């Protein structure tokens, strides 16, 4: 995409698998200097991507990642807060302990808050920057049996993102949210397999149960690249007047526009 600026420094958290990897590859192929974080290094070292090992559920990780990026590159242009996972056990409110709630809050909400806080002073000094917080359709359509604490953490991320966009708009920094629906990632496939085993059904039956519950008119999962395409547009110069908005990539699952 010609409107993606070559040489810009982009951070993608959770950038070694699934949606994060698709975004990292998309931006890297466009000529950006891409930094990815994850708890473990990728099996294959992607050319042009700089890896930082970090578990962003822990408070000190964001400061360490920010310091390493700024020491290496001296700037930050794009932050994609993609690190996250549904850590909720099935069963609704009675199955959720304080630890479950806290784990989801730390990984799916506070990780983004801390990363942004650590890197925003540099963006403000530059008078430019783009932040994309990756949320989920389940923040608007929570599935009580499966996503209660996860959905709550991501709903908080949505509200925080809107407030941050309002604060930073006059400073030359844009903030948007991308909310995928059911995406064919390793985590989603693992979730379906575990659901099949625990319920004594086949993987195909578990997949159908998830799709029926979510209600996807297109009848299939999204490919990670389909989410990455939207993110690439939102960080490009073509989207320079777009901020404070939440975009769904869910195959029509949202009941309203």
TrEMBL record:
Which Gene3D superfamilies does the UniProt record give? NAD(P)-binding Rossmann-like Domain
UniProt xrefs under SUPFAM superfamilies:
NAD(P)-binding Rossmann-fold domains (SSF51735)
Domain of life (superkingdom):
Bacteria
PANTHER family per the record?
A: 3-OXOACYL-(ACYL-CARRIER-PROTEIN) REDUCTASE (PTHR42879), NADPH-DEPENDENT REDUCTASE BACG (PTHR42879:SF6)
Please state which protein family the record places this protein in.
Answer: Belongs to the short-chain dehydrogenases/reductases (SDR) family.
User: What is the recorded name of this protein?
Assistant: SDR family oxidoreductase
**What is the source species?**
Rufibacter immobilis
The organism's taxonomy opens as: Bacteria, Pseudomonadati, Bacteroidota, Cytophagia, Cytophagales
């Amino acid at each position: 995409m010609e409107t993606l600026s070559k040489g810009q420094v982009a951070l993608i958290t959770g950038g070694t698998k699934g949606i994060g990897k698709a975004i990292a590859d998309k931006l890297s192929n466009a000529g950006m200097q891409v930094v990815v974080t994850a708890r473990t290094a990728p099996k294959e070292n992607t050319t042009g991507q700089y890896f930082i090992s970090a578990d962003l559920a822990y408070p000190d990780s964001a400061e360490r990642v920010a310091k390493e990026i700024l020491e290496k590159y001296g700037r930050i242009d794009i932050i994609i807060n993609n690190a996250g996972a549904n850590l909720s056990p099935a069963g609704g409110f009675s199955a959720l302990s304080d630890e479950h709630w806290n784990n989801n809050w730390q990984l799916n909400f506070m990780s983004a808050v801390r990363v942004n806080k650590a890197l925003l002073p540099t963006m403000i000094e530059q008078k430019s920057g783009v932040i994309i917080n990756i949320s989920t359709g389940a923040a608007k359509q929570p599935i009580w049996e499966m996503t209660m604490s996860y959905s709550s953490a991501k709903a908080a991320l949505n509200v925080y993102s809107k407030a941050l966009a309002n604060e930073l708009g006059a400073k030359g920094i844009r903030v948007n949210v991308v909310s995928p629906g059911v995406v064919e990632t390793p985590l989603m496939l693992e979730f379906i397999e575990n659901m099949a085993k625990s319920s004594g059904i086949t993987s195909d039956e578990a997949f159908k149960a998830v799709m029926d519950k979510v209600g996807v008119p297109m009848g299939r999962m999204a490919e990670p690249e389909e989410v990455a395409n939207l993110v690439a547009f939102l960080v490009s110069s073509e989207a320079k007047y777009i901020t404070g908005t939440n975009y769904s990539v869910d195959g029509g699952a949202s009941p309203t526009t």
